């Protein structure tokens, strides 16, 4: 007797007509035609069953605050940071919690069940940290939330930040953050990476730094981050986010940098979520913005919003395998390429074997020249010739 049986799903690796059996919150079998009774049966009808989406870079303390205290007129990162500085003194724990919970509802409805968010620790009141620690606990039954202690204005720029960051880690924040390119000098940036990696090593934590988020080709803190990662034995536990300076670097330097980063074993994340809560939007945008149009590229992009960030966050028992948590998303698409192209409805979002969100399939009813019909966007996927 199973708790849940999903019948006739297509899996991200292309296997078709697969049944997935769930018991006690875990996947117990995946095969063609599983026999047995189940308390609940979902007919997948050939739709894509994916592990849940994972967002490895978010700012949940600032989410849904657009327009407070005023709009970002230039649309630039620097005006955004300045605006956040204006809003920050008036933040309350209650407001942070309310906005974050509202965003988590949206995320879950999109099948996004794990998020790593930075939390600004620049204001020593730490209402952002208190708020998101409360949110992490409240959403835990349905969403894995990981918090990064993030010194938005720089680790060395104001004297109280180092103590506030340590206090945030004492309170239970999971990951050590940083922003070396925003320190006053290159040397301060280098020193901040060393200090923050040392803290992570001493506390046994992961590191996720905003690194070289600038057009300056000489912003090369990622090199220092990779070197300090090796020095402190943090391999596999460090992420450098944004790295936008890389597009301005000369090719010779990058050819030297990449093997160093490979030694660090980090995952580079050059994408923004743009606030829709839909990781398929991110992948869709990446197909165009990074010209990743090949079949293999699109497979890599689907991995980049599922299994790759799951590894980055260190999620355990994640995936579509027997023994894994029964966390899954049934999409109104026939395969992963269709999922990225259509950004389709999330028919079922399942957490630990229970359906926690549903969206009915999108179907248009037609009446053309008296000829009735219906259009299901997922029926337009290319079909393999038999
Ligand atoms: Zn960021």
What does this structure look like?
This protein is of the alpha/beta class. It has 2 domains: 2-51 and 316-364, Urease, subunit C, domain 1 (Roll), CATH 2.30.40.10; 53-296, Metal-dependent hydrolases (TIM Barrel), CATH 3.20.20.140. It is built from 11 helices and 16 strands. The chain has helices at residues 77-87, 93-109, 127-139, 161-171, 186-203, 221-231, 251-264, 279-289, 295-304, 307-313, 336-342, and strands spanning 2-9, 18-23, 26-32, 38-43, 48-50, 53-58, 112-120, 144-150, 175-178, 206-211, 238-242, 328-331, 346-351, 354-358, 364-368, 371-375. A 6-stranded parallel sheet has the order 6-7-8-9-10-11, sandwiched between helices. A 4-stranded mixed sheet has the order 3-2-1-4, with no helix packed on it. Strands 5-12-13-14 form a 4-stranded antiparallel sheet, with no helix packed on it. The chain starts with a strand and ends in an 11-residue tail after the last strand. Residues 265-273 have low confidence and may be disordered. It binds zinc ion. Residues 57, 59, 118, 210, 241 line the site of zinc ion.
């Amino acid at each position: 007797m199973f708790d849940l049986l999903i019948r006739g799903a297509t899996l991200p690796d292309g296997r078709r007509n697969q049944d997935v059996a769930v018991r006690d919150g875990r996947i117990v079998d995946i095969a063609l035609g599983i026999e047995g009774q189940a308390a609940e049966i979902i007919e997948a009808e050939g739709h894509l069953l994916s592990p849940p989406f994972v967002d490895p870079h978010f700012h949940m303390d600032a989410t849904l605050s657009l327009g407070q205290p005023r709009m970002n007129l230039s649309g630039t990162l620097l005006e955004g940071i300045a605006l956040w500085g204006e809003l920050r003194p008036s933040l309350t724990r209650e407001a942070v919690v309310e906005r974050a919970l509202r965003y988590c509802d949206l995320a879950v409805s999109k099948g996004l069940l794990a998020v790593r968010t930075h939390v600004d620790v620049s204001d020593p009141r730490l209402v952002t940290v208190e708020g998101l620690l409360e949110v992490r606990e409240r959403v835990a039954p349905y969403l894995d939330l990981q918090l990064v202690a993030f010194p938005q204005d720089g680790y060395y720029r104001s004297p109280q930040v180092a103590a506030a960051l340590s206090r945030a880690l004492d309170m239970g924040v999971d990951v050590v953050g940083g922003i070396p390119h925003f320190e006053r000098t290159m040397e301060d940036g280098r020193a901040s990476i060393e200090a923050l990696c040392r803290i992570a090593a001493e506390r046994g934590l992961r590191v996720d730094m905003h690194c070289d988020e600038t057009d300056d080709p000489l912003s090369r803190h990622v090199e220092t981050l990779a070197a300090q990662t090796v020095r402190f034995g943090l391999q596999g536990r460090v992420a450098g986010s944004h790295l936008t300076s890389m597009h301005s670097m000369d090719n010779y330097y990058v050819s030297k940098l990449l093997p160093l980063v490979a030694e660090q074993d980090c995952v580079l994340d050059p994408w923004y979520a743009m606030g829709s809560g839909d990781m398929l939007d991110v992948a869709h945008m990446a197909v165009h913005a990074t010209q990743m149009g090949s079949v293999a590229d699109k497979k890599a992009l689907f991995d980049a919003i599922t299994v790759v960030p799951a590894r980055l966050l260190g999620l355990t028992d994640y995936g579509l395998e027997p023994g894994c948590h029964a966390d899954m998303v049934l999409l109104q698409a026939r395969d992963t390429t269709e999922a990225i192209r259509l950004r389709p409805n999330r028919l079922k979002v399942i957490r630990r074997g229970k359906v926690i969100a549903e969206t009915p399939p999108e179907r248009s009813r037609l009446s053309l020249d008296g000829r009735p019909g219906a259009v299901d966007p997922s029926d337009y996927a290319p079909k393999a010739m038999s």
